[in-house]
Structure formats: C-alpha cells, structure tokens
Amino acid sequence: MKGFEKYIPFVPQPIENRTWPDNSITKAPVWCSVDLRDGNQALIDPMNMDEKLEMFHTLVDDIGVKEVEIGFPSASDTDYEICRELIEGGHIPDDVTIQVLVQARPHLIKKTFEAIQGAKHVIFHFYNSTSTLQREVVFRTDVAGVKQIATDAADLIYEMAQPVIASGMDLRYEYSPESFMGTEMDAAVEICAAVLDHLHADAEHKVILNLPTTVENCMPNQFADELEYFIRQLPGRERAIISLHPHNDRGTGVATTEAGLLAGAERVEACLFGNGERTGNVDMITVAMNMYVQGVDPELNFTHMEKIIDMYERCTKMKVPERQPYAGDLVFTAFSGSHQDAINKGFNYMQEKHCDKWMVPYLPINPRDLGRNYEPVRINSQSGKGGAAFIMNHKFGFDMPKAMHVEFGAVVQKESDKEGVELKSDVIWRLFQETYLKVDGPYRLINNKLNANVEDGVAHSHFYGKLQHKDTVFEVIGTGNGPIDAFFNAIHGERMDKYEFIDYKEHAISRGSDSQAVAYIQLRDKEGTDIFGVGIDHNISMASIKGILCAINRGKALEHQREAAAAAQAQ
Fold first, then answer.
1. For residues 501 and 366, what is the distance between their CA atoms, to the nearest angstrom?
2. Is 320 inside any structural domain?
C-alpha cells in the first residue's frame, strides 16, 4: 500500500522507571457523560428537546451518572435552551452536576455564565488547543501564545465565578488542553500549571484537568507514558483531578482509557456505545463492564441494557452494532459447536457445584446481569450437538441425556444445512416435536393397564395393553420388576421385539399439580445403532412406556429407510 511515507510517526515521551504497568484498576473513576454534547454534535440529525431530556434522565435516573456535560450553550441556541430547561424545569437531581463547555473566548464565556444561572452544581469546562499541529496550522503561534489564551480565559472565568459562588452555586472549574496527546508533555505541564495558578487551585479547591486524546494518534502504552510523565512533572498535583476524554480514531479508545487509569487518571468522560465524532468517543459501557467482570464495582447500573439500547437508538437514530461489546445482539451468542458444548457444560457445572462464581467458558459475563433475555446459544450450519441440547434445556426444560445429543444434533444440523440460515428456538422446538413427540406409528397404544404390587418383599409391575399395527389390533401382557421390564416382557415374541434396552433418564418438565414427567429411552437395534425415544405423561411409568414405543417406531422408520436404500442400490 503506497503513500504511507507522508505520515509523521508519533514521537514517544521518554520516561524512566515507569510504574503504571504494575498497577491495577481497583475502583471506578468519576464518570462524566458527554452524550448530550460531544455525542449529540456527531449525529446526522441532532437530538431535539424531548430526546435530549429522555437521554438525560436515562443517564442520571437509570444508569446513575453523576456528572453530565449537557452542551455548548454559548455556541448554539438549542444547547442554550436545553440548559435552561434542565435548570428551570427541575430535571436535575440534587446529587447530579451539569457540565457546560466553552471555548477560551471572552464573549462565549460571558454567555455561558448567563446560561447556568439558577443551577445548583456546575462544572465550567473551558478549553483551547495546545498541540504542535494546532499551534502551527490553526493558530500560527507558539507555546507562550496558547498559554496566554488559556490563562486569560482562566482569569475571566475566576472573576465572573466569584459572585455566582457567593450566591450559593457549587461551581467548579475544568480545563482541557485540547489535543493533549499531540502536545509536547513539558508544554502541556507548563500550560496546565499556569491555569491552576490563575484559577487559585489548591487541595481544597481542585480543578479538573481534562487531558483529551482529541484525535487518537499513538498506542495506549505510549499515552500512559505521557500521562505518568505529566503527573510526575505537574507542580501541585494535589490541586488537580486528572480526567480523560479519549476518542477512538485508532480503535483503541477503551485500551487508552484503561491505560490512562493505570497511569493515574481519576475521571473519564465518555459516551454510551462509543458515540462521538469520527470513530467516536470511548464507550462508557465497555469500560464500566470491563471493570465489572474483573470484580470491580463500576458504580453504574446497566442491568436494563435492552431499555438503554432502545432509548439510544430512538433518540440518536444510530444503531448499536451486533458485535458491540456487552450490548450487541450477538455478543453472547455462540454458533460454533465446540463453543456451544463448552457453554452447556459450564452451566451444568455451575448448577452441579452450586458455584457462587461465574464459570462458563466463552461467556465472560452472565447475560442476565445486563437484563438480556435472548438465548446465549443460537443455531446455524456451524453449530454442534451441544447448542441444540442447550436450547432444549434452558428454553423448553428438556434435559436430554448426553448420548442423545448426537442424534438430535444431527436432526438440527440437517435442517440448518437445508435452510442455510440461523434456526430460531421455535424451529428447534418444532424439530424436537416432529422427531420424538409426534411419532404416531406404525405401532400405537390403544389402551393399557399398569399395576404394581409387592410380593415377598419384591416389587412387581404388571402391564396389560392393546396395540395396533396398521389394521391389526393385538393384546400384550407382561410382568417385570418395573414398568419398563414389564412392557418389554409383554411385547416379547412380537415383531416389535427387536431392540435391546440400553438406558433411560427421566425428570419433571413442569411444576405444581399439573406437572408432567418426561422419559428418554435409549434402545439398540440388531444393526448396533442406538435409537432414542421420548415419552411425556403425568404418570412417570407411562412416560417411560410411551418413550419405548416412540423409540421402537423410530427404529422401524430407520429399518424401512435401510430396506429402501438397499433396494435402490440393487437396481
């Protein structure tokens, strides 16, 4: 691929004895949503007032975000109006802080102060670009020039804030050296330290230093080096809250965020599902849920993911991709047969061992923790026997014996190959019914009587029944040490007596007074082929007999197939 020579490679920040690689994320950062500002400005059709209000309430009421950047009120009448509606309409909970963004320009700063009148908790967020590229291309100035822009703005904001604070508003300051990632770190330190000084920051009155990867242009580890170096060199580190605002131009926004947290950041500005300019802002949900699956409380609530997705897609007109981490329609789906089998075994293992820890291969999180209600296993032509068994168990309550998985899996595989598409759970259920529950011949049980008694301390079962084969009805009578033995003895000598009993399994498939039992019967024909039958009845003994009859009828069908194949070959 030609043309790569024209791009300027990133110059890493030299740093000795870095410590961030040895750190772990052990607590949640302060979260700030920028969905209503950065996310909204990136939409083809920006949100209207009702949509913004719905998103705001989802963020603060449902998810639990405590800081929300609501817009750029000095740059847009729409953003100004939403700011006033949130304040005057009483939408902002007492424990939530709204954040407003403004460029470091005097007339915009003054209009922003007008917009926030009457709010209880406000973060006043101002910014100017500081990167080498921006200085050279956009502002045609040097470090001293962009520092002057920042400190002049800080002086004006501090001056205008004093009467507002005196009136009772909880007002805090936030400064962003835009394009921080592309700024020389010593220059970034110089500019930010000057801003702290001009805002009179101290340990009791901290200023948020938001260090944005406005355009992601280096690897996450290189960003972490920059951040650790910046924090080391910053005079009066205790005066600042280090905040991140990552974008995703290289596709590593989440990794950059996590590396930044390891390097000392305490706060993250993010959007739901990674919405934002170009390739998006960092995805708040992914970063938060990555913590969750490592046993760290993200202090956000995503237990109602479907509701959040519905709100997001309606309000933004954007689609959550099928492979979006933790939220996409397919992220908890396994089509691979080996994956399905492992997932099935994982669920069974947890049930058997009464595990209090999540131990299911290929599923890093329990979908139920996110309120998801679709099948974790779905079936297509790549699926194996374990997937169909999983769906029959977890969707319909049929816990087939392991040996039966192969037989029914082949039925499902054949259907999937024929259709060439994913098979929904209702199709799996239909195939199960057609294969086992709706087998009605050639042998049918017309009526029967089953008795059990104990003689000399030994249990005996007596079976009497009438069976029909095509137009012939015949009686069978047998005694055995149980219903299955009695039935086999009853049919001894009949033409249906060609099968060896191998195994059976039974369990309840419903609860209460109307509960039913299901019996799985494994027989073997004279060719050595194992054949399964399924019987359902309120009486477990009759369920077993129905299962035997099902298996025999299925064996007869297989016998006819063999005869037809042999006849065709002979011709």
1. 40
2. no
Say how far apart CA 87 and CA 325 lie, in whole Å: 34
Helices 106-115, 143-166: crossing angle, 10 deg rounding: 30
pLDDT reported for residue 374: 44
Q: Is 18 helix (H, G, I), strand (E, B) or coil?
A: coil
The pLDDT value recorded for residue 131 is 78
At 383 the pLDDT is 62
| Cα(561)–Cα(117) distance, integer angstroms | 84
Is 249's pLDDT higher than 60? yes
Beta-sheet strand order (sheet of 500-508): 500-508, 517-524, 530-537
CA atoms within 13 A on the CB side of 317: 8
Are 174 and 294 members of one domain? yes
Q: What residues make up the domain containing 168?
A: 47-301
CB contact at 8 A, 177 and 188: yes
Is residue 390 a contact partner of residue 360, using CB atoms and an 8 Å limit? no
Residue 330 resides in a domain: no
- Cis previous bond, 163, omega within 30: no
Residue 360 inside a domain? The answer is yes
**Residue 81 reports pLDDT greater than 80:** yes
pLDDT higher than threshold 60 for residue 94: yes
pLDDT of residue 225: 98
Into how many domains does the chain fold?
3
Q: Are 122 and 171 in contact (CB under 8 A)?
A: yes
What's the predicted TM-score (pTM) here? 0.76
At 389-429, the pLDDT tens digits run: 888 988 899 999 999 999 998 999 889 888 887 788 899 99
Largest CA distance in the chain: 107
Residues 6+ apart with CB under 8 A from 84: 115
Question: What is the predicted pLDDT for the residue at 494?
Answer: 79
Contact 99, 63 (CB under 8 A): no
Residues 406 and 455 placed together within one structural domain of the fold: no
Q: Residue 373's pLDDT is what?
A: 57
Averaged pLDDT for residues 48-58: 97
Comparing C-alpha atoms, which of 363, 379, 374, 378 is closest to residue 325?
Answer: 363
Q: Check which CATH number belongs to the domain holding 80 and give it.
A: 3.20.20.70
